[in-house]
Specification:
The chain is globular and about 40 Å long. By secondary structure, it is α+β, with helices and mostly antiparallel strands. A hairpin with a 2-residue loop joins β5 and β6. Helices cover 28% and strands 45% of the residues. The longest helix is centred in the first third of the chain and has 18 residues.
């Protein structure tokens, strides 16, 4: 794994630490200002929308949960990285992601001022 790939993996470490801490501000800080998030039934545009969406989740249905992502493919081309991952949410009291909630996610990261940030995220059911 080269240094860029390692730095991209570290973004995931920080994202899921923020998730585990229920810290929507730290989570959203890892997104570019004009980031987009697309999930079934959800479209968020901008870091503020990401923060608000996650804050509502951490205060409600996502309280006590943890997100998981297993990068399956990481490609870095200059200041852009594309990551395809196996993803899901382990809800409070669960030990693993149930098959019906498994997702395949695509992340686009952009290096800005030497810092890798999420520019776009989308996921779809894995099955």
């Amino acid at each position: 794994m080269n240094s860029d790939e390692k730095a991209v993996h570290e973004v995931f470490d920080r994202l899921y630490k923020a998730w585990g801490d229920g810290d929507a501000e730290a989570f959203a800080d890892l997104y570019v200002e004009d980031a987009t998030v697309v999930m079934p039934g959800v479209f968020n545009r901008g870091r503020e929308a990401v923060r608000d969406f996650m804050a509502a989740g951490f205060a409600g249905p996502l309280k006590g949960s943890r997100g998981v992502d297993e990068p399956q493919d990481v490609r870095v081309d200059g200041d852009t990285a594309i990551v395809v991952s196996k993803a899901g949410i382990i809800m409070a009291g669960e030990q693993e992601v149930p098959p019906e909630r498994e997702r395949v996610a695509t992340w686009v990261l952009s290096r800005r001022d030497g810092r890798w940030l999420v520019a776009a995220y989308a996921n779809a059911p894995a099955r």
